[in-house]
Design goal:
The chain is an alpha+beta fold. It is built from three helices and eight strands, in the order H-E-E-E-E-E-E-H-E-E-H. The chain has two domains: about 40 residues, no CATH class; about 120 residues, Immunoglobulin-like, CATH 2.60.40.
Length: about 160
């Protein structure tokens, strides 16, 4: 049984790299994630896909309810709860849809969970809403880990 578990874990770990260079991220943004948090009623949500082979990040992100006119939008590099520097400028307006080439260091920060979308306005010049890009687990990896867990439970 332990050999089965070890095999499933190795297969699960390799499956994301072996079968696909594409990774899926979810974005949920609001004022409470800003540093410092704010009481803006604005919110945003979207998805992003990273093609690791070409370092291309495809983003589809929409937002509404801003208290002031938008002045800028960026991807920043910092973990949740920490302000970070701008690493990729984004176009103004909602939705933000496009493909953006990432440097190797920005791609590494994304994979570490340290990239966030920040929407700046006249009311909140430092950012009215913020949302981390959170990696969505690949279904086949989850399935393999579930099988391994079921195998352990039967013992």
């Amino acid at each position: 049984m332990r050999k089965l578990l070890a095999g499933c874990v190795v297969l699960a770990a390799a499956s994301g790299v072996a079968f696909s260079d594409s990774m899926h991220f979810q974005i949920v943004a609001d004022g409470l994630q800003e540093t410092p948090p704010n009481a803006s009623p604005a919110s945003g949500s979207g998805v992003a896909f990273l093609d690791a082979g070409s370092n291309t990040l495809s983003i589809d992100f929409s937002f509404s309810g801003l208290l002031g006119p938008q002045t800028a939008a960026h991807l920043h590099n910092a973990p949740p709860g920490t302000p970070g520097g701008v690493v990729v400028p984004l176009p103004n307006g909602s939705p933000i849809v496009g493909d953006f080439i990432l440097s190797d260091s920005v791609e590494a920060a994304l994979l570490a969970g340290n990239i966030y979308v920040n929407i700046h306005t006249t009311v909140f010049p430092g950012g009215e809403i913020r949302g981390q890009l959170v990696k969505v687990p690949e279904p086949s990896t989850l399935a393999l880990l579930s099988l391994a867990a079921l195998g352990l439970r039967r013992r």
